[in-house]
Specification:
One of its GO terms (cellular component) is cytosol. It is a single chain. The chain is 35% helix and 17% strand. Among the domains are: 115 residues, Glutaminyl-tRNA synthetase, non-specific RNA binding region part 1, domain 1 (Helicase, Ruva Protein, domain 3, Orthogonal Bundle); 60 residues, Arc Repressor Mutant, subunit A, CATH 1.10.10; 232 residues, 3-Layer(aba) Sandwich (Rossmann fold); 119 residues, Beta Barrel (Ribosomal Protein L25, Chain P), CATH 2.40.240.10. The chain is of the alpha/beta class. Helix 1 crosses helix 2. Strand 3, helix 16 and strand 4 form a beta-alpha-beta unit. It has 26 helices and 27 strands.
C-alpha cells in the first residue's frame, strides 16, 4: 500500500528535516520499503527533530544499503554516524562490509574502528601534499590531455593513499591544482579528440554539445568492474542471512564445510549462475539488466550461466515465448552454458516434497484461496496444519494421481504463521491443475510453485550466486528455510534494484494487456521497451548492454532511469555504425531554373563525417538535377537574422552540392500554402551561405525520387511513471506513432535490407522495418539527433 494523505505529509516533513531535497524525499516516499527503512533509521538515531545534510545523507545510505544479516548492530553503527566518528561514504561502506561478515555475531570494537577508519584524521596539509605528489607523477599526461584528463584516475590514486579522507575536499584540491597548472579552460579543451585516420570504421562524433551534458560521469573503480561486489564461490560457507522465527529461534543460513566441498568438487570452484525467465511473455529491458548480471558475472569469473525456463505454470506458457527468449538471449550477445527447464526437475521436486511431508514440514490443505488469504492476514493456522503426516502423504499421492478435484487441495509448507515476514506464512508448494504442460506433456496434474521450486532447482544445478531483483528480498527467508530443512546445498542469494525506465510500463500484466487489446502493434511494437520492440526500432544490443552497465548493480530501488540516458547510448553506438544518407520527410519542390531539365550530375556524398578523399567506400553517389526537394520546414516566407533556411531572395547550401538562391515562390489559391519554389544554383560555389540543407533530387527528368514510408515514434506514455496512475491507460500518448507515408530518399537506399540502420542527415537515426516490401520501404525512427548540424556541416 502506498503511503498517502496526512501520513505522507508527515513522512515528507521528517525526510526534509534530515536534509534530503524535496525531489529525493518524494521519490523515497513512493517506495514503501525504503520509506520504512529510512523512518526506522531516523528514529533509531534519535534524529526525528532533524540533523545536518551530511549526516542525513549517511542515514539515507544506511537505510538503502545496510546488510540485512546484521540488523542487530545497526543502532551501534548509527551512534558512530550521529557522533561523526563515521562521517564519510567510504567509512560507511567499510562498516557495511565489516558488519556483513560478522552478521549477528559479537565483534571487537577496536577491530571495527580500525576497519572503518574511526579516529583517522587526514589533515589538509597531508592531503595537499598527496595531491601535489600525484600531480607531479602524472604531470606529463595532464599537460598533454589538459582538461580532458580523467580526474577520476587522480581521485582514485588519492583514495588508495588516504581512504578515509573527505572526498569533497580532495576534489576541491584537485580542481584547484588543475587550474594552477593549466589556467582557464579554453574552447580547445571542450573539443572532442580527433579520430585517427586509419580507423575509418569509427567515424568522428557529430552529436551536439547537448549530448556531452548527458555523458555519464567518469566511472569509479567499482563501476569499472561491477561484479567485484560478489564473493568468490569458495566463500559460500559464511553466514550472510539470518531468519528470525516468532519463537525466538534464529536460522543462520550457511553451508557446512562438507556440503560446500561437495559443491566445489562438482563445479570445479567455478561460478554458476542462472537467468530464469518465466515463458509467459516477451522479455523487456529489465530482463536485459538481469541478463547482464547473471551472464556477466559468470563470464567475468570464467564460469557458467544456465538459461533456465521457470515453467511451473502450464496455463500461461507458450512455445512462442520460449522460442523468443532463446533468440533474444543470443541477440543480446549471451551464450548459455545449458538450456534447462524447471519442468526437467519435476520428479526430483515431487520426491523432495514427499520428504518434506515426512519430516513434518509440509501438509495438505483444503482451504480455498479466499480462506488462505484471510487466515494469512489474521496470522491464523489452517485447520489442517497439524493433520497426521501419514494422512498428508496419502492425500498428496491422491493429488498426484488426479483423484482430487482442481482447487480442492494444495500442499503447503509448514513455516511460521506468526513471523513478521508474510512470505513465511505457510506458502503453497503444490497445486492441482489438469492442464497439459508445454514441455512435460500430460504426465503431471500437480505443479510446484515458484517459492517451492526456485530454490531447490538452484541447489540441484549447483548455482553459486542466485541473483534476483529486490522485490524477492522478503522471499529470502523462505528460500533458505526450505533448503535448510531438506539439508540441501545453499547458494549465495543477492538482490539488486529493478530497472525502471520513464514513460513506459514494465509489468508483464500491463504489457500483455496493451498488446492483447491492440493499444500497440504486437510485442515487438517499436514504442515498447520489450527487447523485440527495441530491436525492431533499430536499437542495438551493444547500446542496451552499455546502458545497463552504466546504471550499475545496486540495491537502491527508488530510482527511475530517464529515457534520455538510454537514448544517449543508442546515439553513441549508431554514430559509429550507421552510415549517413539524405532523406526528406515533408518534401517541398524546388525547381532550379538555371540548370537544364535533362541535366543530371552525380555527386559524391559522405557516409561518414571523417571520410577520406582517397577512400571510395566512404562515399555514395547522389543525383543532382533541376528538380530537388527540401524539407518544408526549411523554407519561410519571412526571413530573420537567426534563421539559416531558405527564404525569398536568400541563399542556402545544399549539402554536398551547391548554393541555391530563392528567386520566386509559387503559392496555392489560398495565397498562403507554398506549392513550389524557383531557385538558381551557383555552380562556382563562390557564395558562402550560412545555412546547410538536406535534400533529395529527381534521379532523372520527370522521375519521382524513391518514395518511402517513415514512422516517427515518441514516448508511449505522457507521464514519467504511468504505472502509479489509477487510470494508466488514459496516459497513453496519442502522438506516440506518426506515419509519414510519402517521404523521399536517395536512390542508394532502394535495396536496403530489413534491419539496416542509417542516419538521415539532420533528422535522426532510422532502421528498415520488417513491413517493407519490394514496392515500398518502411523506416522506423530509432532516435532523433540532439541538434541538427545546421550551419556547421558543409
Amino acid at each position: 500500500m502506498v503511503v498517502k494523505g496526512e501520513e505522507s505529509d508527515k513522512i515528507l516533513e521528517l525526510f526534509l528535516k534530515i536534509g534530503l531535497d524535496e525531489r529525493t524525499a518524494r521519490n523515497t516516499i513512493a517506495n514503501n520499503k525504503v520509506t520504512s527503512n529510512l523512518t526506522s533509521v531516523i528514529h533509531e538515531a534519535a534524529l526525528a527533530d532533524g540533523c545536518d545534510r551530511t549526516i542525513g545523507n549517511l542515514l539515507y545510505t544506511v537505510a538503502t544499503k545496510y546488510p540485512a544479516n546484521a540488523l542487530k548492530h545497526r543502532p551501534k553503527l548509527l551512534e558512530y554516524v550521529v557522533s561523526s566518528k563515521i562521517k564519510t561514504p567510504a567509512q560507511l561502506e567499510a562498516s557495511f562490509s565489516f558488519l556483513s561478515n560478522v552478521a549477528s555475531e559479537d565483534y571487537k570494537q577496536k577491530e571495527f574502528e580500525e576497519a572503518c577508519g574511526v579516529g583517522v584524521e587526514v589533515s589538509l596539509e597531508e592531503l595537499t601534499q598527496t595531491v601535489n605528489e600525484i600531480f607531479e607523477d602524472n604531470k606529463a599526461a595532464i599537460l598533454e590531455r589538459r582538461y580532458r584528463m580523467n580526474v577520476g584516475e587522480l581521485l582514485g590514486s588519492i583514495r588508495k593513499k588516504h581512504p578515509w579522507a573527505d572526498p569533497k575536499i580532495a576534489k576541491q584540491l584537485v580542481d584547484a591544482k588543475m587550474y594552477e597548472l593549466l589556467g582557464e579552460r579554453t574552447e580547445t579543451d571542450d573539443e572532442k579528440p580527433s579520430k585517427k585516420k586509419e580507423k575509418k570504421e569509427k567515424p568522428a562524433k557529430v552529436e551536439s554539445k547537448a549530448d556531452v551534458v548527458d555523458t555519464p560521469a567518469q566511472p569509479s573503480e567499482e563501476e569499472l568492474n561491477p561484479f567485484s561486489i560478489f564473493p568468490a564461490a569458495e566463500d559460500n560457507i559464511k553466514v550472510h542471512t539470518e531468519v528470525f522465527f516468532s519463537n525466538g529461534s534464529v536460522l543462520r543460513c550457511c553451508n557446512t564445510r562438507e556440503r560446500l566441498d561437495n559443491h566445489l568438487k562438482v563445479t570445479g570452484g567455478r561460478v554458476f549462475t542462472r537467468f530464469p525467465p518465466e515463458p509467459n511473455g516477451y522479455l523487456h529491458i529489465g530482463h536485459a539488466k538481469a541478463m547482464f548480471v547473471d551472464f556477466g558475472l559468470a563470464k567475468e569469473r570464467g564460469g557458467c550461466c544456465y538459461l533456465r525456463y521457470d515453467d511451473t505454470n502450464p496455463e500461461a506458457e507458450k512455445k512462442e515465448y520460449i522460442t523468443h527468449i532463446e533468440e533474444i538471449v543470443q541477440w543480446m550477445g549471451w551464450e548459455p552454458f545449458k538450456i534447462t527447464y524447471t519442468s526437467d526437475y519435476f520428479q526430483d521436486l515431487y520426491e523432495l516434497a514427499v520428504e518434506l511431508i515426512r519430516r513434518g514440514h509440509a501438509y495438505v490443505d483444503h482451504q480455498t484461496p479466499e480462506e488462505i488469504k484471510e487466515y494469512r492476514e489474521k496470522k491464523m493456522n489452517s485447520p489442517w496444519r497439524d493433520r497426521p503426516i501419514a494422512e498428508s502423504l496419502k492425500l498428496f499421492d491422491d493429488m498426484k494421481r488426479g483423484l482430487i478435484e482442481e482447487g480442492k487441495a494444495t500442499l503447503r509448507m509448514k513455516q511460521d504463521m506468526q513471523s513478521d515476514n508474510f512470505n513465511m506464512y505457510d506458502l503453497i508448494a503444490y497445486r492441482i491443475k489438469f492442464t497439459p504442460h508445454p514441455h512435460a506433456g500430460d504426465k503431471w496434474c500437480i505443479y510446484p510453485s515458484y517459492d517451492y521450486a526456485h530454490c531447490i532447482v538452484d541447489s540441484l544445478e549447483n548455482i553459486t550466486h542466485s541473483l534476483c531483483t529486490l522485490e524477492f528480498e522478503t522471499r529470502r527467508a523462505s528460500y533458505y528455510w526450505l533448503l535448510h530443512v531438506l539439508d540441501l546445498y545453499q547458494p549465495y542469494v543477492w538482490e539488486y534494484s529493478r530497472l525502471n525506465v520513464t514513460n513506459t510500463v514494465m509489468s508483464k500484466r500491463k504489457l500483455n494487456y496493451i498488446v492483447s487489446n491492440k493499444y500497440v502493434d504486437g510485442w515487438d511494437d517499436p514504442r515498447l521497451m520489450t527487447l523485440a520492440g527495441l530491436r525492431r526500432r533499430g536499437v542495438t544490443s551493444t547500446a542496451i548492454n552499455y546502458f545497463v552497465r552504466g546504471i550499475g548493480i545496486t540495491r537502491s530501488d527508488c530510482s527511475m532511469i530517464r529515457m534520455d540516458r538510454l537514448e544517449y547510448h543508442i546515439r553513441e553506438e549508431l554514430n559509429k555504425t550507421a552510415p549517413r544518407v539524405l532523406a526528406v520527410l515533408h518534401p517541398l519542390k524546388v525547381v532550379i531554373t538555371n540548370l537544364e531539365s535533362r541535366s543530371v550530375l552525380d555527386l559524391d556524398a559522405k557516409k561518414w563525417p571523417d571520410a577520406q578523399a582517397d577512400d571510395s567506400s566512404a562515399f555514395y553517389k547522389v543525383p543532382f538535377s533541376n528538380v530537388v526537394y527540401i524539407e518544408r520546414s526549411d523554407f519561410r516566407m519571412k526571413d530573420s537574422k537567426d534563421y539559416y533556411g531558405l527564404a525569398p531572395g536568400k541563399s542556402a547550401l545544399l549539402r554536398y552540392a551547391f548554393p541555391i538562391k530563392c528567386t520566386d515562390v509559387i503559392l496555392a489559391d489560398d495565397k498562403e500554402t507554398v506549392l513550389e519554389i524557383r531557385a538558381e544554383y551557383d555552380p562556382s560555389k563562390k557564395s558562402k551561405p550560412k545555412g546547410v540543407l538536406h535534400w533529395v533530387a529527381e534521379p532523372s527528368a520527370g522521375s519521382e525520387p524513391l518514395k518511402v514510408e517513415v514512422r516517427l515514434f515518441d514516448k508511449l506514455f505522457n507521464s514519467e511513471n504511468p504505472a502509479e496512475l489509477d487510470d494508466w491507460l488514459a496516459d497513453l500518448n496519442p502522438n506516440s506513432k506518426v506515419v509519414v507515408p510519402a517521404a523521399y530518399a536517395v536512390p542508394s537506399l532502394r535495396n536496403s535490407a530489413i534491419g539496416a540502420t542509417f542516419q538521415f542527415e539532420r533528422l535522426g537515426y532510422f532502421t528498415v522495418d520488417k513491413d517493407s516490401t519490394e514496392e515500398k520501404l518502411v523506416f522506423n525512427r530509432t532516435v532523433t539527433l540532439k541538434d541538427p548540424y545546421g550551419k556547421a556541416g558543409k
